User: Fold this.
Amino acid sequence: MRNIREVLSVFLLAFSTSAFAEEAGSFGQSIAAFSELVDGFFNDYTGWFVALIFKSVPIGEANFPLIVGWLLLAALIFTIYFGFIQFRRAGMAIDIVKGKYTDPNSKDEGEVSHFQALTTALSGTVGLGNIAGVGAALAIGGPGATFWMILCGLLGMASKFCECTLGVKYRTILPSGVVSGGPMYYLSQGLSEKGLGGLGRALAIGFALMCILGALGGGNMFQANQAHAMLTYAFDVPSEYGIITGVVLAALVFSVIVGGMPSIASVTEKVVPWMAALYVGMAVIVIVANISQVGPAFAAIFEGAFTGAGVVGGFVGALIQGLKRATFSNEAGVGSAAIAHSAVKTKEPITEGLVSLLEPFIDTVVICTMTALVITIAGLNVAPYDGSGLTGVTLTAASFTETAGVFKYLLALAVVMFAFSTMISWSYYGLKAWTYLFGEGKSKELVFKLMFCVFVVIGATIQFGAVIDFSDAAIFAMSIFNIIGLYFLMPVVKKELQSFIARVKSGEIKTYEKHSK
Assistant:
């Protein structure tokens, strides 16, 4: 069995090469050896945890992950409990983002605007899952998976509403004005108010540990790894030069996260709209160029949703793949977004809960559906999802390039932007979990930020499977701790909602004509 000393010795060997460009062969071998040892280490010691979190039960010819059912059931319960809030109050949510309910002269505590909080949280969810994940879902579940993906995204809006309202209500504001919030705080403080302080602290600590592991893995190493892989695919960058990609990305990430949440929000409010516009713009071009196939594409989506003809597991296979992709993409119920939304400038927790319900709609209903529609249209022309061997990002890339070869390079740019924005958001999530466990302070924060950037370099350099499986499991383990707390605390959210709506109707809470971000 491999030990830590062996892993570290190969790590030092891999990074001791000063002239790696001239000795790419030996450097590549060192990296491959390091990758193998790291992967083996995680496979040996964490395989049981991954198997536990992603435990599946057979349904027909397909396997249904219980964690997906856990997230879907919560979304359904919150949707019913809050009276389909995502449909009834969507207009109010948009008005809040536009600044209609923000007093321009107010001095509300917090670090960022509603719009900045939304884009920061979106940058953590709108990422490679929208590109690679949807490709994988359709490769297995066919076009019909799209229908169930949209449905799950709509239900997930209620989960986001619940957790982000609590994130603001139970946040901690330091004398410096810096905000710390998220599930760690509402689990411990909220359950303590109900006489369940021991349970709340246990759930908060479990959540924080999983959040740190998830931030370093899925929110960091995987993003850097896939960014370099896309550069290799599009521009023939040698795979062994991943260390260069990693160092550049790490430098960019550090330059942003060193400034804290205001710096992160300032970047995401600019990057997220542009990267979303680039990706959706490409999708729109594909759709317009193949306008005659749009009708048949939607027909294939609706027919496949209820028949699942020609896909693994039939109807159940299409259902499972759609639900899995939606829950894995928008992270509704995971609790991560509540950390970003906690930093908003407001004294009304419910306003940020309403803003947050827009996330699953943008992430899943709009962007994931755009990807699925492009793949389906390409499938009607050249059938890339009928067993040709393409899946994930390669299926998505092939579907885009069916319309225009230049999309290969634009997609590479989108992947890098998605990866970068996801990393800076998850660095903030991991940091807040870190300071919850080890205490606030600039020196403690700097330790985590430097560690995070080191993992960026490692992620871009090595190839791994078990490491990512473990970090994915950690991210979804967060939902177990989070949702248990949400069930106890959802009456608190309902009370906040009823109070806010009553004060809006009475005129106590005013609207303002001058909108601002």
Q: What stands out?
A: The CA atoms of residues 418 and 441 lie 30 Å apart. Residues 10-21 have pLDDT under 50 and may be disordered. The two ends are 55 Å apart (CA to CA). The longest helix spans residues 466-506.
